[in-house]
Design a protein that fits this description.
The protein is mostly helical. It starts with 6 loop residues before the first helix and ends with a helix. About 80% of the residues lie in helices and about 0% in strands. A two-stranded antiparallel ribbon has the order 1-2.
Length: about 180
């Protein structure tokens, strides 16, 4: 007996993913700008193949300005993400305790021991606590996405800075050799 997979399931899944991705990229904002707008703002045009020292200096200034913007936003996204992570941990602990307290309060009103409710398993307790903190969990997911975005931007600008340093050394050496 063979099993066939309905390809339309994957199409639907891809459509859902694309829709979700587009919504996030064009609707969710960080400091008033969407990811799409940040990508446009952070786009560095390539240096021309025959760039001069002046071109290199102008490019270096752009990179310096972007490094400043990216480092500030990465720090903000990181602190927000770490803070939300701690808030979620605390909210989960409080939710678990509240669930157990509610169960204990319910059981205290029941005279027949056979009618009392048992404490939920750890998995069930965790799932219920998660459901009670769902908004905070979603906020954490969004914070994680922005943290990842700015981490990638930070890595990218550091790579550009490293290459720019090498180019500057090479171009300055070339200039010195041509003026001798």
């Amino acid at each position: 007996m063979s099993t066939q997979v309905d390809d339309s399931i994957f199409d639907l899944s891809q459509e859902s993913y694309n829709e979700l991705f587009e919504r996030f990229e064009t609707k969710m904002t960080f400091k008033g700008y969407t990811i799409q707008e940040w990508n446009i703002a952070l786009d560095l045009k390539d240096l021309p193949p025959d760039f001069s020292l002046n071109d290199l200096e102008r490019y270096n200034l752009k990179v310096t300005n972007q490094t400043n913007t990216i480092s500030k936003n990465f720090a903000l996204a990181s602190s927000n993400y770490i803070g939300l992570k701690k808030s979620v941990e605390r909210a989960l602990m409080i939710a678990k305790q509240t669930i157990l307290d509610e169960l204990e309060e319910y059981n205290s009103t029941i005279d027949n021991p056979a009618s009392k409710k048992r404490a939920p398993s750890n998995d069930k307790l965790e799932a219920e606590a998660y459901n009670r903190t769902l908004k905070l969990q979603l906020d954490l997911s969004i914070a994680e996405i922005f943290h990842t975005f700015w981490k990638i931007q930070w890595d990218r600008i550091n790579l550009i800075n490293s290459r720019l340093t090498s180019l500057s050394v090479m171009k300055n050496t070339e200039f010195k050799m041509s003026t001798m």
